[in-house]
Design goal:
Rossmann fold; globular; five-stranded parallel beta sheet; binds NADP nicotinamide-adenine-dinucleotide phosphate; alpha/beta; 326 residues; binds glyoxylic acid; 14% strand; seven-stranded parallel beta sheet; single chain
C-alpha cells in the first residue's frame, strides 16, 4: 500500500507528478488555507505532510497524523510556522525549499525599495484617479538611489542568501555602500562588495535604505520597533520581504504617519492580509504587495520540486536533500 501524503494546497504540478507515483495524495483544494480543524482532519493517517507557510505545524498536527508520520516539507524557505524542535523531538524529518527563491525574492526587495523611494504608490494612484494633469516640476518628488556626491548607504539586516543577493544588486548596480548585520561577519561579502559588518543601531543610524532579511524567531520578533525606527534617518526607506512580525507594525505606522522615516516597502505584514481598515493602507508613503517574493513560475516550480523531493526522501528514510536542522 502506498503511503498517504497531505498537501495543504494545490502547488505547481511538478510536485504532484513526482509524488503521485509513490504516494496517495490528499490535497486540500481551494484558495484558502485549511482551517485548523481541516488540517488536523486532513493529516490523519498520513506519512508525509507538504505544508505552506500559513499552516501551523506542531505537536498537535503530529498527534493528529499518527505514529506513521515520517516527514514534513514546507513549501517555503522560511519555517517560522513550524515547531522544529518539537518535530525533531518526535523524530520527524523536516525540510524547506532554500536557494531557488533567492533571486526572485531579492528582485522584489529591490522593486519595493525603488517603488517606495520614488513614490510609486501615490503616483500610480494619481494616474488612475485622473489627478495627473501635466508634467509637474514639483510633483511626485522622491529620493535618489544614486547620491549626488557620497554613495547612498544600504543597510542589510541579515546577510544570508537573500540579503547578500540584494546587497549585490544594489552595490554593483547602483553603487551603494553596504552595511550589514548577521550573527557572524561575512569576510567573503566584505571582500566582494566592500561591505561592513556593524551593530544594528549603527546600521539604522547611517543607512539611507534598510532591507530586512532575517528569519522570524524569538530573537527577531519586533527587531524593528519604536526605538529602532527612531534611530533611522528622516529620509530613510525601510523594506521588508522577510516576515511581518519582525517589525512592530504599530510603531512603523506611527513613524510613517509622523514622517520620522520617509517611506516603507512591504511584501509582508501582520496579519496577512491586512484588515481593510488598517491604517497602513491609508498611507501614501507605504507601498505594499501581497507576499509575492517567490512568485515567478520557474521559482515556484523549483520550490515544488524541492518540497516533493524532501517528502520522497523522508518516506524512504533517506536524509532530506533540503533539510532544516536545529
Ligand atoms: P538565510 O540564508 O538563512 O539568511 C538569514 C540571515 O539572517 C543570516 O545571514 C543570519 O546570520 C541572519 N540572522 C539570523 N538571525 C539573526 C539575528 N538575530 N540578527 C541578525 N541576523 C540574523 O535565509 P534566506 O534564505 O536569506 O531567507 C531569509 C528570510 O526571508 C526567510 O527566513 C523568510 O522568512 C524570508 N523570505 C521571504 C520571502 C517572501 O516571499 N517575501 C521569500 C523567501 C524568504 P548568519 O548568516 O550569521 O547565521
Ligand atoms: C516565503 O515567504 C518563504 O519563506 O519562502
Amino acid at each position: 500500500m502506498k503511503p498517504t501524503v497531505f498537501i495543504a494546497r494545490r502547488i505547481p504540478a511538478i510536485a504532484h507528478h513526482l509524488l503521485e507515483e509513490h504516494c496517495e495524495l490528499r490535497v486540500h483544494e481551494g484558495l484558502m488555507p485549511p482551517t485548523r480543524e481541516e488540517l488536523l482532519a486532513g493529516v490523519q493517517g498520513c506519512s508525509g505532510i507538504l505544508s505552506l507557510l500559513s499552516d501551523r505545524i506542531d505537536g498537535e498536527v503530529c498527534e493528529a497524523a499518527g505514529p506513521q508520520l515520517k516527514v514534513i516539507s514546507n513549501f517555503a524557505v522560511g519555517y517560522n510556522n513550524m515547531d522544529v524542535p518539537e518535530l525533531a523531538r518526535r523524530g520527524i524529518a523536516v525540510g524547506n525549499t532554500p536557494d531557488v527563491l533567492t533571486d526572485a525574492t531579492a528582485d522584489i526587495a529591490v522593486a519595493l525599495l525603488l517603488c517606495a523611494a520614488r513614490n510609486f504608490g501615490r503616483a500610480s494612484q494619481d494616474v488612475r484617479n485622473d489627478v495627473w494633469k501635466t508634467w509637474q516640476p514639483l510633483g511626485w518628488i522622491g529620493k535618489d538611489l544614486v547620491g549626488f556626491g557620497e554613495p547612498k548607504k544600504l543597510g542589510i539586516v541579515g546577510m544570508g542568501r537573500i540579503g547578500s543577493a540584494v546587497a549585490k544588486r544594489m552595490h554593483l548596480g547602483w553603487g551603494m555602500q553596504v552595511l550589514y548585520t548577521a550573527r557572524s561577519p561575512k569576510p567573503e561579502v566584505d571582500k566582494e562588495l566592500s561591505a561592513t559588518h556593524v551593530e544594528l543601531p549603527k546600521l539604522l543610524e547611517e543607512s539611507d535604505f534598510v532591507s530586512l532579511h532575517v528569519p522570524l524567531n524569538d530573537e527577531t520578533h519586533h527587531l524593528i520597533g519604536a526605538p529602532e525606527l527612531t534611530l533611522m534617518k528622516e529620509t530613510a526607506v525601510l523594506v521588508n520581504t522577510a516576515r511581518g512580525e519582525i517589525i512592530d507594525q504599530d510603531a512603523l505606522t506611527e513613524a510613517l504617519l509622523s514622517r520620522s522615516i520617509y517611506a516603507a516597502g512591504l511584501d509582508v505584514c501582520t496579519p496577512e492580509p491586512l484588515p481593510a481598515d488598517d491604517r497602513l493602507l491609508q498611507l501614501d508613503n507605504c507601498f505594499l504587495v501581497p507576499h509575492l517574493g517567490s512568485a515567478t513560475q520557474a521559482t515556484r516550480d523549483a520550490m515544488a520540486e524541492r518540497a516533493a523531493k524532501n517528502i520522497l526522501a523522508g518516506l524512504q528514510d533517506q536524509p532530506l536533500p533540503y533539510r532544516i536542522s536545529i
